[in-house]
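re: ur question from the group chat, yeah i did fold both. here u go
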Amino acid sequence: MKIVKYKYLCIILILFIVFIMISISLFAKYIFPNLLYQRTSFIYRTPDYYQWKYEDVIVQVDKEQTHGWYIPYEDSKCVVLFSHGNAGNIADRLESIGIFRKLGLSVLVYDYGGYGKSTGKPSEERCCKDALAMWTYLTQNKGYSPQNIVLFGRSLGGAVTADLATKVECAGVILESTFLSTIDVARDMFSWFPERFAKGNEFYTKKKLKEIKSPVLVIHSPQDTVIKYYHGKKIFELLECEKEFLEIIGDHNEGFIITGDKYINGLKDFIERVLNLSVRE
């Protein structure tokens, strides 16, 4: 009788372990990505909204298509490759793009897989491939020299930009309101958060920083409640390349607006230096 009870207990324990493993797998595959990638597909405005000339860009990434806008600034020899945050799509980034245009720069902004008009589904691998494909478009199709390209990434886009910056050398890199990893962000809210829950979407920025050779500007706000300030300070600390830190004010999604001239001038000073003042040409 005791042997039978023991067997039943073993079966229950095995089933429980299987249940836990399946639950973790399902969370990592479906729930966590949906929390991370808050994407929208409807493009409710284009650069026409501000009467800017632009070109639709479509590049092949594996068997999917990645869509973006190339927004040239007249007579500019330099361009910003813009990687946006986790929510919405490129239609939400026109105001940020306008800042770079005021500095005399062309911009290539794009959507990750599953965002806007880009097909497929987002993942860390896909986002990083999207960025590299757009870099290739700029250097091969548009003929930009790497030394005339500035990489910019905000929030999730900063993690994507950091990854790209380990693969290419460019004029400079701007990481704004970026995280050490998605796991660190999750653990800021839930200290018990297991690493397995983020499998395939960890975005370990902190492990890639030492590989970046180009100059980097790190931007972060102490009032950021989404990605806490220590992420930006630690990113800055871990970088071994030429680097600068710009402290802004305001929460995660409004800092660049509220900070105003200090933000714009911080970008201007960094960009003019790494591009050897060519933004004024």
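okk and heres the other one u asked abt
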Amino acid sequence: MNYKYEIVNYDKNVPAKILYCDLSSDTHKTELHWHREPEIVYVLEGLGECSHNGEMKDLPAGECMIFNSEDVHLVRPKMGYRANMIIIQLSFEYMRMFCKTIDSVIFDLHERPEHKDQICEILRQIANIDIDHDEYGVLKQISGVNLLYYTLLKYCTSLKRSANSFIIPKRDFSYAKTAIAYINENFKQEIPLNEISSVVNLSPSYFSKYFKSVTQVSFSEYLANLRLENALQDMLTKNSTVTAAAVENGFANVKSFITQCKKVYGYTPAQYKKHLLNR
């Protein structure tokens, strides 16, 4: 499970980054991440799920979810399902031209269900624009994105933070971000509990409880999932053997790699690779 900060780059023509994803839970994403820019997700078909600051939620077709700046999140198909989604990452710099205090704005769709329906319809319309076969489709895309910005800024801002005020988040992710950044750099080596807890200056027992409370998974499971994801990727992209993938990605032995793979996917690593290649 990789938990990282991301930098978002934008298309020069469209004032947002638009991603179209048609995913299967066969490639069960475990990567938690955060970035400065707000992100909004809409499920077109299938069933997705998201982790939002440590809380899991199902995202059925027709449902959208917004993640504010620095929110730790993950969006993926629910296990056993596919999910066709559109993801739009908003631009602070663009919004600042119209809202000078954008850095202190929090978007909230839950308290405004009627406007959330509007947002979902705008996202559906953007997703249906065929820019590959319509030479002017990008103009419709720009129009839709601007309507999205307008609706969010006009109706969906729930809190503005001044320079003198602050919000206490539901969960404090500061220690987790530091810890997982360290894990991400060092997962190929042994990382004892004493070592990772010292990175964030917490006792091992407190760190264990804290880590699970904010990520919904234990430190050991989190580390095993990160190693699993990278080991399987090596088998698929580098044609690594099971043994090489295990050793090069921090597993103590091949058996622990096989056990973790069967636990997550119900297959051995070799079976999992064959399953994906035969789809």
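fwiw on the second one: The beta strands are 3-5, 16-24, 32-34, 39-52, 55-60, 64-67, 73-77, 82-90, 105-107, 157-160. The first strand starts at residue 3 and ends at 5. idk if thats what u expected
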